[in-house]
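Why do we bother with a discrete structure alphabet at all? Because it lets us treat a fold like text: something you can write down, compare, and reason about line by line. To make this less abstract, here is a complete entry for MFS transporter. Read it the way you would read a sentence in a foreign language you are learning: slowly, and without expecting to understand everything at once.
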Amino acid sequence: MEQTARTRLSLAPRRRYARLAVAFFFFLNGVLLATWAARIPAVQAQLSLAPAALGTALFSGAVGALAGMNGGGYLVARYGSRLVVILATMSLCLMLVLVAFVPSLPFLIMALALLGASSGAMDISMNTQGVAVEHLYGRPLLNSFHACYSLGSLGGALAGGLIAGWNIPLPAHFGGIALAGAILAFGAIPALLPSFSDQGASQKEGGTRVTFARPTRTTLALGLIAFCSLFGEGAMADWSALYLNSNLHSGAGLAPTGYAAFSIMMMVSRGVGDALTARLGAGWMVRLGGLLAASGLALVLLTPWLPLALLGFALIGSGLGVTFPLTLSVAGRLAGQGQATSTALAAVATCGYTGLMAGPPTIGFVASLLGLRLALGLIVLLSLGISLMAGAANKPSISPSPPAPHRPKAEAERTASEPPPGP
């Protein structure tokens, strides 16, 4: 009994530092990507790119991100998430600098593909670390990590706007952010969990690790929830301002306020999502998230009054904000059910980001046939679908990692740097 209490006390600082380190990497990922996004107009002007050419370059970044997620899942399962976090973060910083120096469209396409691949690998590896920290705490934490990403995105976008307004050249802007990010990342590396990849992953007889396996029904359901959630998020990013301006006649100055309300409430919901999930359970949170998003968008589409529409966008952000992180949290607990932690995460994240990519063009295609109001109604149906599939998020539950058993002193010293076993 005394030994167990002593072990828990020794784990407390370690898991706290690990939590702060993982939160920092989520924040840094948001800052780096928002830094690039804020200066896209400058890159377009620098290379004199037509909209179609810029779209091609941006698409290469999305393809690179999907490839990086799947490749990152394999590398995490094989080498551990800590190493992949380190390499992917340094690569993302380097690729951000490289983008500032590209001389032509073909080089931009290659640079953005590498930038996307680095971000995708970082995404999977830091989410795997986040799942590991959840295991140590024995309660939901992944929503708070994604809130840090949202905060980083907001900070990177605001700083990028100010720097662009001061006409600071791209190499100085990207180089300064990347250098600061890399230095801070090196400081946070020691606090990462040493090698959580798939400690609880299912293994074949004889102890052979399963790296890839056929997706389970739960994984597929989680992937569909992630797809529907990010489909709606991508559509809100690209079509909310246009809807307010063209359908509610808000004017160009107020048109962006819908997406602002959506984004702010998405960050807020992620900030409180873990506490609510601990009380209500992941299944109920996903179900309520889908219902909130569906009712919010229905309000947007049915009201002719701008303040009510803004309330609707806030409800959409509140609902969709928690659903995607929860799918990743549950996917990270599927180890032992036929998949490694990292590959289950990669499968669900890939489905989600496919929805993010598919959402805006699909809405545009349907809008050209039926009008934007009816096209956005598709997201109401997808949000209701999230609620119907929410049962997939009920299992398995999080349980805290058990304290390490008492071992001889020599063995304890030899394995002191190893993480405690997963649940």
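What the structure line is telling us, in plain words: The chain has 14 helices and no strands. The two ends are 19 Å apart (CA to CA).
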